[in-house]
């Protein structure tokens, strides 16, 4: 794995992004950026397409500041469109694809599945997938 690395855990609301991120952060000794906490800190609950772009750029800026300090960063957020994913510019994109629809219709309509990803999580078993991610990242180093 590149050191330091910016890891994006993305997918629909309720897919299990945060559960997986919590475990992975501990294993990688990474800094965790959770989208809901960041939105709360910035009092920005705008989920329009423009608000989502603003959030992805905010998450990128915060992540890049952490990377400069030499730490891995794990960001978990929906990141629903090719533009938001491109704007965030992750080193590793992990797509949590465990549900077909989230609880918000506007997000379901906006969500475009990623074409390129490092790993696609297909079941809600965070312990299993955390280990899969760690093993795959180790192989990246070689």
Please give a handful of descriptors for the protein shown.
Rossmann fold, globular, 6 helices, alpha/beta
Stated plainly, the CATH topology is called Rossmann fold
Amino- and carboxy-terminal Cα gap: 8 Å
> How much beta, percentage-wise?
5-15%
Write down the domain tally: 1
* Total strand segments: 5
What shape does the CA trace take? globular
The radius of gyration computed from the alpha-carbon positions, rounded to a whole number of angstroms, is 14 Å
Could you walk me through the main structural features you see in this protein, from its secondary elements to its overall organization?
The protein has 142 residues and is of the alpha/beta class. It has helices spanning 17-28, 35-42, 49-68, 82-88, 105-110, 126-141; strands at 6-10, 31-34, 73-76, 92-96, 119-121. Strands 2-3-1-4-5 form a five-stranded parallel β-sheet, sandwiched between helices. Helix 5 (105-110) links the parallel strand 4 (92-96) and strand 5 (119-121). Helix 1 packs across helix 6 (126-141) and helix 3 packs parallel to helix 4.
């Amino acid at each position: 794995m590149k050191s330091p690395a910016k890891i994006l855990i993305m997918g629909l609301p309720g897919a299990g992004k945060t559960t997986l991120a919590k475990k992975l952060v501990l294993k990688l000794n990474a800094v965790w950026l959770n989208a809901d906490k960041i939105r709360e800190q910035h009092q920005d609950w705008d989920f329009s397409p423009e608000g989502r772009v603003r959030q992805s750029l905010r998450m990128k800026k915060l992540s890049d500041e952490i990377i400069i300090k030499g730490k891995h960063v794990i960001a978990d957020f929906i990141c629903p469109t090719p533009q938001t994913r491109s704007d965030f510019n992750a080193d590793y994109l992990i797509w949590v694809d465990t549900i077909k629809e989230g609880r918000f219709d506007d997000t379901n309509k906006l969500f475009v599945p990623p074409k390129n990803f490092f790993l696609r999580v297909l079941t809600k078993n965070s312990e299993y997938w955390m280990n899969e991610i760690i093993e795959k990242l180790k192989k990246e180093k070689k």
